[in-house]
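STRUCTURE:
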């Protein structure tokens, strides 16, 4: 059974990205399948923190514009 964990806040700089990355890495190390989505359209940096900035092919704007599915 899948679960959804949402990390959100109206304020910037409170550690949402760091917390999300830490949770995702922890679950992945325990063998869970993990998908992490950064909805900060203009200032995304989850890919940088997780070390996969060169592997990001699409962002949320591409999904909205239906450039990818």
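SEQUENCE:
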């Amino acid at each position: 059974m899948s679960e959804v964990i949402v990390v959100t806040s109206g304020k910037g700089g409170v550690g949402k990205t760091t917390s999300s990355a830490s949770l995702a890495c922890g679950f992945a190390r325990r063998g869970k399948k993990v998908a992490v989505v950064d909805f900060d359209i203009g200032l995304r940096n989850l890919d940088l923190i997780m070390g996969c900035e060169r592997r990001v092919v699409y962002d949320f704007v591409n999904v909205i514009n239906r450039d990818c599915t």
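REMARK: The CA atoms of residues 24 and 36 lie 7 Å apart.
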